[in-house]
Specification:
The chain has about 240 residues and is an alpha+beta fold. It is built from seven helices and five strands. Helix 3 packs across helix 6.
């Protein structure tokens, strides 16, 4: 019996069976992604957005208006030719503090008309007779330059102005002596961007066309060549 035990101890131990390799875990699909992208499909190609086309009235000014003005006034230097610098739209609301919703509606309407978010204007000083405090909101304003300026001017001349009531032409006596033209509008309904059903209150606005001309006659010629419909009977006196 002792010999058998010694033999059993001398026998080599049987090798243990190798462990099976663990299978790699499959990556979990992330939430929010489509199934095609999770399976390894190529993502959709993101092409660069094409820039917006240039304003039609801007090209018309550079191709035709500049040459006509240079020939009409005999400008020797091309920098003397008048051009549009900016257009300022201003909406004044004296009771903005009492009716804040009216001011919010005016800001939204002016943004829809111009395509640019307006700035809320505030009182610079307090006036007791008007119950006005310093820093109180009294309206909103927008300043347009470049392409947006020419886009607005094109829509204003071709669409908004003909929709004015009893329109007989714009006055030519509204220049300030430095080549800038100011115009008052009684209703914002003349702009096609305004929805009649959503208008809470009818209000007007002031529009100022700022040019680089230092004289009224050259500024008048510039605006007339761009298509501004001035009154014929007073055009000669203003020029």
């Amino acid at each position: 019996m002792a010999d058998e035990k010694e033999k059993q101890e001398k026998q080599p131990k049987q090798d243990k069976q190798p462990k099976q390799d663990k299978q790699p875990k499959q990556p979990k699909e992330k939430k929010g992604k489509p199934a095609a992208e999770a399976e390894g499909a190529a993502p959709e190609s993101t092409e660069p957005v094409e820039p917006a086309p240039r304003a039609r009235l801007w090209d018309f000014y550079e191709q035709q208006v500049r040459g006509k003005l240079q020939q009409q006034f005999a400008f020797k230097n091309p920098h003397q030719i008048p051009r549009m610098k900016k257009i300022v739209l201003n909406v004044g609301m004296g009771d903005a503090s009492k009716t804040p919703k009216g001011l919010e509606a005016a800001v939204a309407e002016l943004a829809a008309i111009t395509g640019q978010h307006p700035v809320v204007t505030r009182a610079k000083k307090a006036i007791a007779s008007f119950n006005l405090r310093e820093g109180q909101p009294i309206g909103c304003a927008v300043t347009l330059r470049g392409g947006r300026m020419y886009e607005f001017l094109d829509r204003f001349i071709s669409i908004a102005v003909p929709r004015m009531r009893d329109f007989r032409g714009l006055p030519t006596k509204s220049f300030d002596g430095r080549g800038n033209y100011s115009l008052g509008i009684k209703e914002q309904m003349i702009f096609p961007e305004i929805d009649y059903d959503k208008v809470e209150r009818i209000h007007g606005m002031d529009i100022t066309f700022v040019t680089s001309a230092g004289r009224d006659d050259t500024a008048l010629a510039l605006l007339r060549e761009l298509g501004m419909p001035f009154r014929l009977e007073t055009a000669g006196a203003a020029a």
